[in-house]
Structure formats: structure tokens, C-alpha cells
Predict the structure of Palmitoyltransferase.
Amino acid sequence: MRECEYSQISTRSSTPMETPYKKRTPKKRKWQLFPGRNKFYCDGRIMMAKQTGVFYLTLVLILATCGLFFTFDCPFLALQLTPVIPVIGGVLFLFVLGSLLRTSFSDPGVLPRATPDEAADLERQIDVANGTTGYRPPPRTKEVVINGQTVKLKYCFTCKIFRPPRASHCSLCDNCVERFDHHCPWVGNCVGRRNYRFFYMFILSLSFLTIFIFSFVITHIILESHRSGFLSALKESPASVLEVVVCFFSVWSIVGLSGFHTYLISSNQTTNEDIKGSWSSKRGKDNYNPYSYGNIVTNCCAALCGPLPPSLIDRRGFIQSGVPQIAPPANGIPMYGSTQSQQSHMVSESENERQPPPLSSSSKAPMVHHHFLTPEEMPSPPGMLPCGSPMGHSPMGHSPTVQAGFYNPASQDSLHEDSVRGLVKLSSV
Ligand SMILES: [Zn+2]
Ligand SMILES: [Zn+2]
């Protein structure tokens, strides 16, 4: 009994000696070793592009113009007209500022880069697909069929992944971004899948705010000029003159941009696709937009009210020792690209069918449905999306809409999520 007690004491005494020493080793978060050219603040909570000078100009312009309006115009307008004017102005101002900061400070939908192991695995798969002659065709592309439309997936040599549909590499931020719209220096961030709706809300509300301030400052000057003459009214309120000038020169571009993005949203296009002229606006044409729901209202709802996907880069997660430096995705969602472990069987298509994908972190994610698009499953007639394939996930299964080759709204989000999770399996590379 006594011996037993002694042994317990010796065990206890050794453990606390080691524990505090281990706790002292500083843990690094993933944002600290993030491979893209981004800036992080507040321990990784805020993420922006590297160059943020124009963003601060945007912020100063909005704050200064609104500051002048609330200081010099609102007291007069509230007295002479109604106190509702400063209230509406205040609400609009807060909405503009909130949507701007949400756009600027968030992850636009950056796709994690492949780890060295995953990149090597993908290289091997490409080698096998191209034969063992050592010759690699320069453009590394895959083709997927989305609603009857063939879409090319390009290989990103920087991120070492096949980009999902609609993703593009931002050269300024050096990241592949999901549903890449454009890089906006005014908001100091890329505009992509995760912040597009906030960007749209920002420019739309800013249009209203600019028109609102412009109209009421003019009203203020007119009311003043009735009392003391036009020139003396201008002399008495130089701040109002400055506001009118700023609003007059900015309103055209802001309203024009809002109109352009309203058109893009209604047709479910990105700026990137529109500039490249990827899709024709008419559905009957050969290059119709496969992402459009064919209905303006549904397109708008999908862009503004659809579920917001989680960030894939897990920038505040801790780096585990012995794990490759590129951050594994958040929430157990695997990385995009056939580089991930689920697709390590890509070499043999029949093998893929027989064997379940190897266990990985993704097995914890309840919503991940593994089903690869194999040549056997390729639709016939061409373009039809097979039920259960990554391109045709739908709660309705073989719904008539899917069979007819139309876009199934319910399937679009899961379609994109699945493609991001690297479930695109093709017969050829
Ligand atoms: Zn890339
Ligand atoms: Zn960017």
C-alpha cells in the first residue's frame, strides 16, 4: 500500500514539470503563414488585400461628406423641414458603412492552396492521364458539363489546384477566389462569392445616400438663397458647396456601377464573365449562361438571399506541428482539386467506384456526399446532369427540370459547394 502511494507521488511530481514548459511554446495561427498577399488584422479576424490606400480614400470621402452633411445641413433642414431627414440620412449612412466594412474585412471566398503532398499527387495523376512519355500539353484543363454547357476548369500553377467553375486567380491578392467577380481597390478586397452581396448592398445604398445628400444639400442652398440671396447663401455655407461638388462627381459612377451590378445579378453573371463575354444573354444560343436560373427574380434571390458558404481557409486555426503548412480547410470541408485525399484514386476510375474514399477530415462533415462523375455516368443525351453526380445534386433527384437540362435552382448551391470540395471527377485531364 505504501509503495503504491509512493509511485503515485512520483508520477504526479513529474507531470507538472513538463506541462507548463509545453504550454509556453507559442502556437502560430494559419493566417500568420498564409501564402497569399493579404493583410490580416485583429489576430486574423480581419482580412484585406495588401494595398489598402484607395480603401482609406473611400472611407475618408464617405465619412467627410456625411460628417459635413450632418454638421452643417441637417440642423437647418430639421428645423425648416422635418427631423426625419437626419434620421433617414443616419440610417443610410450606417448601412453604407456596415456593408463597406463587411465587404472589405471578410474572406471573399479564397480557395486554399494544395499542400506539397496533394500537389505531387495531382502531378502524378496528370502524368498518368497524359501518358508516361513525359510530355505534358501546356494548357492543363478539365472539362465539366453544367446544365448542358461545357465549362473548362483551368489549372492554377500558383495554387496547384484545378479551379472550380467561376473561380479565378486574383493577381493582386495571389489567391484563387470562388465565383470571382473582380478585385475592387475601392473596398480594398477581392469581390467574390462570400462578399459579393455585401458589395452590392454597399454600392446600392451608397447610390441612395449620394442622391439623398445631393438633393437635400441643394434644398438647403435654395432655402438659404430665398432668405439672403444665392451668392450670400453659397458664402454662408461653403461646406454645402463642397458636398455638392463631391456628390455631383461621384454619383454618376456609383449609380452606373449599381445599375451594372443589378444587371449582372439579374442574369447571374460575374463582372469577370461579362468582360470576357463568356455567355450570351439568350438561352437558345450555344453559349448560354449555365448558371442562370432563367428567371430574373430567382437570379436575384440566389445572389442576395442564398446561403453564405463558410470560409475555407480557416485563417484563425492553429498550425499543427508535422502537418503541411498550407492550411487545411475549415469545418472539416476538404480542399478543392483532385489533389485532395478523396481523389487520390482518380488514376483508376473503376477503382473509384469500388472503393470508398479514404478516411479524412471530410468524413466528419455530414453534408458531404461523395459521388464522382464517371464516364459511365456522363449524361446521354449530352449535357444532362446525372442524379447524384457533383454537377446534379438535387433534393428532387431526377427531377424533370434536371432531365430537361434546365438549371435546377435547388441544385446550384450544392453543385458549387461540391465542386469546391473537389468532387469533380472527369474521364480525362
Ligand atoms: Zn490560384
Ligand atoms: Zn484581389
Observations:
- The first helix runs from residue 2 to 24.
- Residues 1-19, 327-429 have pLDDT under 50 and may be disordered.
- Strands lie at 38-41, 46-49, 110-111, 141-146, 149-156, 161-162, 168-170, 175-177, 182-184, 189-191.
- Residues 111-182+308-420 form one domain.
